[in-house]
């Protein structure tokens, strides 16, 4: 939580949010930004010193009206009671682990998404694709950050695999412990900019945050040597102020990422398959053994790959299956 009285612009305020305040609300309520989410309390910053307040909005359902980190709230000038969550520019959320009927909010009002992965055996193209689908779904600029380059002599192999996921995808390779190595990431961390980090446990998100902040205040843990799998270090979603004026929004590691309502994002990430499918003889082609299947023809010709086809089919099938579950939303 920031220790100074930040201006709204420094906290990431945009004209977008001003447009959603009524004339009656100006003066009686003022906006604060949610900088951390804890059990039963949220940390906010804005006018006055940073403080903890109750996250419960009177009369609001336990849904997307519940504040999450990165949100802007209107609070009463006298009582500090939250009135409402201002409309969001974007919202990252996922299906709650273990219960596909529920949703879990991750972060709101993000400018750039750092998709963090490590250059070791835990590297997964399929997992990167899921994070990229999430970014495309909410129209946030994604940057893949490959960490732990100091522990491998073949970082180029991981970089090539990541770049192959989508044309024009920005990929940065860094040693998260080296300030000079991560300095290039500062271009996305200017005044009032919010950068969220997503990635599995153990990929080095907390180390990256510490280095960008010039601090070691965030705890880190070693990965398991036998399989390069990490353990959860970050336990709350929290925004960290950077010297460049921007904010890093750290989140707990997520190995299980069940996408929520991600049809558009899937279509964007796998647009080469979508385009190829338009050439199929039958509009309801399942891309199996049907005659005249343009997708299978492209795979046979080598312009599309069967491995990526299988991942596309799996994500599309998951999206279809989710429609069978009535959604019970929850925030936080």
UniProtKB/TrEMBL annotation:
Residue intervals of the EngC GTPase domain: 108-255
Primary enzyme class: hydrolase
Cofactor: Zn(2+)
Keyword NAD listed: no
GO molecular function terms noted in the UniProt entry: GTP binding; GTPase activity; metal ion binding; rRNA binding
Domain CP-type G: 102-257
Sites where the protein binds GTP: 147-150, 199-207
Major localization class: cytoplasm
Pfam family, one: RsgA_GTPase
The enzyme's E.C. designation: 3.6.1.-
CDD domains per the UniProt record, alphabetical: YjeQ_EngC
Keyword Transferase: no
Subcellular location: Cytoplasm
TM annotation in the entry: none
Entry superkingdom: Bacteria
Keyword annotations: Cytoplasm, GTP-binding, Hydrolase, Metal-binding, Nucleotide-binding, Ribosome biogenesis, RNA-binding, rRNA-binding, Zinc
Cofactor annotation comment: Binds 1 zinc ion per subunit.
GO cellular component terms, A-Z: cytoplasm
InterPro entries linked to this entry: G_CP_dom, P-loop_NTPase, Ribosome_biogen_GTPase_RsgA, RsgA_GTPase_dom
GO process terms (BP): ribosomal small subunit biogenesis
Positions of Zn(2+) binding: 280, 285, 287, 293
Similarity remark: Belongs to the TRAFAC class YlqF/YawG GTPase family. RsgA subfamily.
Task performed by this protein: One of several proteins that assist in the late maturation steps of the functional core of the 30S ribosomal subunit. Helps release RbfA from mature subunits. May play a role in the assembly of ribosomal proteins into the subunit. Circularly permuted GTPase that catalyzes slow GTP hydrolysis, GTPase activity is stimulated by the 30S ribosomal subunit.
Oligomer and partners: Monomer. Associates with 30S ribosomal subunit, binds 16S rRNA.
Protein name: Small ribosomal subunit biogenesis GTPase RsgA
Organism in which the protein naturally occurs: Sphingopyxis italica
């Amino acid at each position: 939580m920031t220790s100074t009285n930040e201006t709204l612009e420094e906290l990431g305020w945009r004209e977008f949010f001003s447009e959603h305040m009524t004339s009656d609300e100006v003066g009686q309520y003022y906006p604060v930004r949610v900088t951390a989410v804890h059990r039963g309390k949220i940390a906010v910053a804005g006018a006055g010193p940073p403080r903890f307040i109750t996250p419960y909005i009177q009369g609001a359902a336990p849904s997307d009206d519940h504040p999450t980190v990165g949100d802007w709230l209107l609070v009463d000038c006298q009582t500090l009671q939250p009135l409402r969550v201002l409309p969001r520019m974007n919202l990252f959320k996922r299906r709650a682990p273990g219960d596909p009927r529920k949703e879990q909010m991750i972060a709101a009002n993000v400018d750039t998404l750092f998709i963090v992965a490590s250059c070791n055996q835990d590297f997964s193209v399929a997992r990167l694709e899921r994070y990229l689908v999430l970014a495309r779904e909410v129209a946030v600029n994604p940057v893949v950050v490959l960490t732990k380059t100091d522990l491998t002599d073949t970082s180029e192999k991981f970089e090539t695999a990541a770049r192959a996921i989508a044309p024009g995808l920005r990929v940065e390779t860094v040693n998260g412990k080296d300030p000079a190595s991560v300095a290039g990431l500062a271009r996305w961390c200017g005044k009032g900019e919010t950068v969220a980090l997503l990635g599995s446990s153990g990929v080095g998100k907390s180390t990256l945050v510490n280095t960008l902040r010039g601090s070691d205040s965030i705890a880190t843990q070693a990965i398991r040597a036998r399989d390069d799998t990490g353990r959860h270090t970050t336990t709350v979603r929290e925004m960290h102020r950077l010297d460049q004026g921007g904010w890093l929004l750290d989140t707990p590691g997520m190995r299980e990422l069940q996408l929520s309502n991600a049809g558009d994002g899937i279509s964007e990430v796998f647009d080469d398959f979508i385009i190829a499918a338009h050439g199929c003889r039958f509009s309801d082609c399942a891309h199996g053994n049907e005659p005249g299947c343009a997708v299978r023809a492209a795979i046979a010709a080598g312009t599309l790959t069967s491995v990526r086809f299988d991942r596309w089919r799996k994500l599309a099938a998951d999206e279809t299956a989710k429609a069978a579950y009535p959604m019970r939303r929850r925030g936080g």
